[in-house]
Amino acid sequence: AGAETVKRAVQLDVASRFQESLVCYQEGIDLLLQVVKATTDEAKKQRYRQKISEYMTRAEDIKKHIEKEKKDGKYHKQIRIEENATGFGYEKLFQEYLTEIVSEVWVEDPYIRQIHQASRYLLYNFLRFCELLVKGPCKVKTIHLLTSYEKGSGRSQQITALEEIKQSLSNYGVTLNIDFSSSIHDREIRFNNGWMIKIGRGLDYFKKPQGHFSIGYCDFDLRPCHETTVDVFHTKHTKKM
């Protein structure tokens, strides 16, 4: 398992997918260290130690490279979610960026609405995202939402739902600030630790579940996705709305 994980790390390294490569290197090194402890053959131990040393050196170089890109505001990671892919719940995409220093979050998405539309559950998606923020390990105190108004009679339902989310968040010590714009088009999520995530479809990249009692209805990791691209950046300063 250690050898396979390190092999994957090298492949990601060659493809310049450094953040993913670093994670695989670290996991592979941990697994190989366990092998060393269980091996009685001194010659094998020495070979493993040499390889581990090489991987540790490369992992440290990658870590320095990533930190430099972050410092220079040049960091960019791209994730391609294929049609019908699973395993891309919000935890998968956002968890590694929700460090303990995150206290403020900005969400720009023009379609946090349409609770009644059969093909979309966008207000519920936003609620799921808020639940992720509440669970931590970050200490979010303020969420800023910029979206657009629902058209026609659905507007009052949209506002009622958002106000309910706002009230529920306040019970956890989190303030939700809601603003509306008729010209918003971009979809992005920003954290005050400098991370910015742009998803082509915003929070609405999941397909409609087959039924209310089908696998994937509750657990987004099991829900098939629409094809989309996720771009992750690190900026020196997260812009304010």
Automatic annotation (TrEMBL):
<dbReference type="InterPro" id="IPR045331">
    <property type="entry name" value="MITD1_N"/>
</dbReference>
<dbReference type="InterPro" id="IPR032341">
    <property type="entry name" value="MITD1_C"/>
</dbReference>
<dbReference type="InterPro" id="IPR038113">
    <property type="entry name" value="MITD1_C_sf"/>
</dbReference>
<dbReference type="InterPro" id="IPR036181">
    <property type="entry name" value="MIT_dom_sf"/>
</dbReference>
<feature type="domain" description="MIT">
    <location>
        <begin position="1"/>
        <end position="71"/>
    </location>
</feature>
<protein>
    <submittedName>
        <fullName>MITD1 protein</fullName>
    </submittedName>
</protein>
<feature type="coiled-coil region">
    <location>
        <begin position="45"/>
        <end position="72"/>
    </location>
</feature>
<dbReference type="Pfam" id="PF16565">
    <property type="entry name" value="MIT_C"/>
</dbReference>
<keyword id="KW-0175">Coiled coil</keyword>
<dbReference type="InterPro" id="IPR007330">
    <property type="entry name" value="MIT_dom"/>
</dbReference>
<dbReference type="InterPro" id="IPR052817">
    <property type="entry name" value="MIT_domain_contain_protein1"/>
</dbReference>
<dbReference type="Pfam" id="PF04212">
    <property type="entry name" value="MIT"/>
</dbReference>
